Amino acid sequence: MPTLFLIAVVLMVRVLTLEIPTGQILLKKADESVLLVGKGGLELKPEGGKVVLTSVGGEKLLEVEKPAAISIERGKLVLNLSGKKFEVSYDRVLLSVEGPVRVCAENACAELRRGQYALSIPKRSAVQGLDFLWNPDWNRLKDPNVWIAAVGQIFFTLSLGFGAIITYASYVRRNQDIALSGLAAASLNETAEVILGASIAIPAAVAFFGTANAILIAQQGAFNLGFVSLPAVFSNMEAGQFFGFLWFFLLFIAGATSSVAILQPMIAFLEDEFGFTRKAAVTLTALIVFIGAQAVIFLAGFLDEMDFWAGTFFVIVLGLFEVILFYWIYDAKKAWEEINRGGLITVPKLYFYVVRYVTPVFLLVLLIGFVINHIFGAAGGETTLVQWLARFYMLALYVFLAILVFIADRRSAVKAS
Question: How far apart are CA 89 and CA 38, in angstroms?
């Protein structure tokens, strides 16, 4: 884990130092006010005058007395003068204008008189991504979909409400600490996910695509951001292959470790209830996953639909049921004793009331608000064929697993009698 954490930090530092040219050239006055913006190029047309290009440090670079085209190559300014290219090797140069000079962009021109001007290539940096990330739009809190996505994300990443938590719980001994272990696991997980993960993906997308385009990409799903957009970012940065490898290595480790925990309950169920060997149980489970993976690979949107229903909505539903079972049916006092048994820290009494009253009410209101918004609001929309296929697959898988549970229950009843 320390090695993975260090890799994530290295990747984050590299991303946060990104500066990506916007593809524009700005013509500015000496007071830095913008005269003209060229999208990819400008035309420099001396009309009896002369332009001397110098670096910011005062080094004389070039004299231009004939029409010249200014463009951007590899983030630097390039002049095409009489068919010859002169790479300035700077992203900002000073213009000393002597006599009338005309500068034109695609749809506009500017007349320059004697004086000092500047050409520069504005850049987007990953710091702008941090600004976008950590300056929330509070109006979005009115949207039930935002709450569903946020709660579903934290439930999924902490393995709450589905089978993975059973795998982790099976390793906890009767008097082993739960309180401090849970606090440490949640804190470290969110540090890695929110602070490190978000500080890699979102700032990189903002630096490369701009804030508006990054928002559009993110709205298409995290999978599109992580597996389509970021590879494009890495392919256009220095040592991009190396940092791309680090990114996908971290994703692989995260996916592999999560898959083991998610699939283990199914494997253990086949072993314990049907007497399967470990190899047979793993093979059957892998076959089910393989069949579902074909649709995920070849049908765009299939995984997003599965992720929403199986990894977000129903995880919250199951979490609500578990809270009710644990704190209302099982007995709240026994549940509280179980949480604090063998604890290295004492959970504040406030959380007893939070979990018993606030949590179920909050989750119930959240689900009701989402359903109302989805049915009567603008969130509904037209359901595509791929979405129906994903839902049918999940339903078929649920029916199959329910049949297995029913058969296992009957077998247990027969053995008991």
Answer: 18
